[in-house]
Amino acid sequence: MFSFLLAAAAPIADAGDNPNVQRVRDYLQHVWSEGNLQAVAEFYDPACKHGDDFTIEGFQRNVTRQRESFPDFSVQVHEVFAHDNWVATRVTYRGTHTGRKMFGQEAMNKSIEVPGLDIFIFKDGKCVEHLHVADHLDMALQIGVKLAPTPPAEKPGTSAD
User: What domains, with CATH codes, occur in the chain?
Assistant: First the structure.
């Protein structure tokens, strides 16, 4: 469905006549680039679908943790597509890991640049569903996380004892 949305909707350079485009631009700027937690509550409907256990308070904690890890975290919006109550964005997330641990990794002053896609669905001026895709594995690798395979768990009754 997302590919249809991109093919059917023309990019919108400004808010035009769809107020949700400006809502998304404001959300990305105020929440992610500035760390404004009140903007989270203003943007999302409390019953929003965004992951398995979304709450506004939990999302605010996630924003705080992300910005504590990357104090200079910012979002660059490349393209915005809109159709009715749907808004899709193509963005790049940037920051430098100078703060708290992330993925178990102490800050090593490494910069990240991660592309992302988001789809926002609105009802009555609030986001009621948010689909987010970004390469978090690539982000972990960019900050220096060393990956190692996890040995398979031993199945009950297969021990050599």
Answer: 2-142 (3.10.450.50)
Question: Could you tell me which of 161, 124, 148 has the C-alpha nearest to residue 23?
Answer: 124
Phi, psi of 149 (to 5 degrees): -65, 145
Q: CA-to-CA distance for 153 and 117, rounded, in angstroms?
A: 34
The residues, ordered by sequence, that sit 6+ positions from 55 with a Cβ below 8 Å of its Cβ are 46
Place of tokens 């992330």: 102
Contact 83, 5 (CB under 8 A): yes
Read off the pLDDT of residues 134-155 as tens digits, 9 standing for 90 and up: 999 999 999 998 888 888 888 7
Rounded to an integer, what distance in angstroms lies between the CA atom of residue 130 and that of residue 118?
7
